[in-house]
Amino acid sequence: MATVTDGDVAVAPLTIESVTTAPIPRPEATVPVVTDLPQMIVLGLLHLVALFALLPWCFSWTGVGVAVVGHFLFGMLGITIGYHRLLTHRGFVCPVWFEQLLAILGMCTLQGSPARWVAIHRLHHRESDSQPDPHSPLAGFFWGHTGWLLVRHRNFARTASYERLVRDLLRHRFYRELERHDTWFFVYLAHAVALVALGGAIGWWTGGAGEALRLAVSMAVWGVALRTVVVLHGTWAVNSLSHTWGYRNYTTTDNSRNNWLVALLAHGEGWHNNHHADQRAAAHGHRWWELDMSWWVIRGLEATGFVTAVVRPRAWNPVARPVTGPGAMPDAVDGDDAGE
Ligand SMILES: [Zn+2]
Ligand SMILES: [Zn+2]
């Protein structure tokens, strides 16, 4: 197959092959279906509170500003850079305290503990768009987007059942502790309370009790609920839209796609076919016009020397890093047993 070039950079073997899009059954580990009621209630309430953004009384520029900053801080630094490109794929190296800070930011998006998120995502890569994939849209578009979160998945119900996928993380006490007693959820609650209190304090300072109440509510609606919902749907869209619609630069065994909308909504994660083809690469946009904000941040941190060993796409320099296969995972995944 011919290699095409983008400028003077070899970017990919372009393919127009049709991948299989035949429906697949839901994962066996979710059958028989047991509804995850707590998850359903929390997500339902969150969406309900987010709808209050339609009320003019709940609007404030403070709330909107915190929502926008939060989308980058928690959605990009926490999830796309932290949970995904660092913890799951080890696309770069950084100081431990910074890695843990990114993990804490990730928990403020209501997407679960770092170890569980990483385990689910590594299984997704290993079994993409085949029956054990936890969230393939080939089992139903809504299933791939949100439905899989609303039912119990036996393999992710207890830490012990997914430990083998995240041994590299669970050998650190920090990640083990977050698994206990749903600690990650209390981190989410704590950040929400802090932001609401911040809104109340700003309101009190600028306009007294009435304004304190209004800004506290505005912060809860815009800065917490709506922002969380937008980040959640951005992440979910990677699983659903980017496995359904878009173009493909690479031949992969799954149905992954490069999707512009998802790339904008999820800070570059929409270049998902690129990512499936080269999972460890810290850059998901492989052509110059495939905008990837998460990569810009990683590249900036690398320029300051703060992060190192940044893994670049093989397509940018095929000689530098040998092809290790589409199922390649960080070396540590199948490492020694957890223990510190
Ligand atoms: Zn995928
Ligand atoms: Zn990935």
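^ zinc ion complex. The chain has one domain: 33-334. Residues 183-240 form the longest helix (58 residues).
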